Amino acid sequence: MRVLVIGSGAREHALLLALRRDPGVEALAVAPGNAGTAAIAEQSDVDITSGDEVVKLAKDFGADLVVVGPEVPLVLGVADAVRAAGIACFGPSKEAARIEGAKSFAKDVMDAAGVRTARSEIVDNPARLDAALDRFGPPAGDPAWVVKDDGLAAGKGVVVSADRDAARAHAASLLDSGHPVLLESFLDGPEVSLFCVVDGETVVPLLPAQDFKRVGDGDTGPNTGGMGAYTPLSWLPETVVTAIVDDVVAPVAAELVRRGCPFSGLLYAGLAITSSGPAVVEFNCRFGDPETQAVLPLLRSPFGELLMAAATGELAAQPPLQWRDGAAVAVVVAAENYPGRPRLGDVITGADGPDVLHAGTARREDGSVVSSGGRVLSVVGTGADLAAAREQAYAAIGRIKLPGSHFRTDIGLAAAEGRITL
Ligand code: GLY
């Protein structure tokens, strides 16, 4: 089969590598891609938010399957356009993608499906902000305020702070720019990302992973799109994964079917494992970044076949997924000043190994590779256990040179040292 992947991050690089390992995949294309993906797929620079441009590219390439990586084209309906053109597409419809695109919709679906999530309130009028803030955070007995953009914000619309002034300032700036704000109660406990391939009411979970959203070691500093991830989670009992599938993802998938917008694609449940059990922090309508870079290297089953089965309504007939033993870690190398305005255009060397996935990179005419985004690379290590996987990832990072770059040194460390308990 011929597969076109849409997107340009390390996640899409990981998707392409996993597809390339499937003997049933004969050709790969990517749009727009980056300096790393150019080596493994035909690359075209189209506007990926335009259904017409993506459909034209898919037809020109003769794609049997289009896999849409990022949320923005999904929320804008690109998967609908591809399907309407008669081409199989892995990715939800515009209607179903609202599970990520509008947090208020996600809350409503979870409420109807009886799924545990944080208590929340939407504020769209600045005059109501102060009274709403009093119903959350320390005045309401929570350790911190959780303030989110109701719409898409690339992971950076969230502020979690015990400082009322900081929480208020973030909410006020979102409101000032016309974005409704979601206030939430704080969910305590280790976080889990569980990716599920979903086709209507059929749910197939991948290995659970943990993401590190804060920029600094020890979970300090501002939120980012994700600074690293590891899988599997030795501290998470299999019964909890089963409970997440049965009590969280399956009821939400069924509720979307009931509402006439069945989900087809990757439904990503971000959860906190609280003392009273799993509770949803957020749903996303696509593979997560950087968890995908850690999860997919451990998948042994043919990945293209899995995605095609979901895209064509055949997921229930797929055999159980097979996984490699061991662990995987992905560590993000970010540009200077990320998650603020990153410094771009720095030359990168030592980033051509098979364990280095590219995100914000571009190739200059002179052949050099330069940084072109905030999260520049994801470096992946695999090994017999988490300690070995970490060692491999950090050894590979040691070979990379990117002036001003930074990365977290503690990805997977607490789990490797047995310091995560439920
Ligand atoms: N890992 C966070 C995200 O993909 O949104």
Characterization of this structure:
This protein has 422 residues and is an alpha+beta fold. The protein has helices at 10-20, 51-61, 71-75, 78-84, 98-101, 103-113, 129-134, 164-176, 238-258, 291-295, 303-311, 386-397, 413-416, and strands spanning 2-7, 27-32, 42-43, 65-68, 88-90, 120-123, 145-149, 159-161, 181-184, 191-199, 202-205, 210-211, 214-216, 220-223, 228-231, 264-274, 277-284, 327-334, 347-348, 356-358, 361-363, 369-371, 375-383. The strands form 6 sheets. Strands 3-2-1-4-5 form a 5-stranded parallel sheet, with helices on both faces. It has a 5-stranded antiparallel sheet with strand order 12-15-18-23-20. A 4-stranded antiparallel sheet has the order 6-9-7-8, with helices on both faces. A hairpin with a 3-residue loop joins β13 (214-216) and β14 (220-223). α2 crosses α4 (78-84) and α6 crosses α9 (238-258). The protein is globular and about 55 Å long. The termini are far apart. It binds glycine (GLY). Residues 155, 211, 226, 284, 288-289, 291 line the site of glycine.
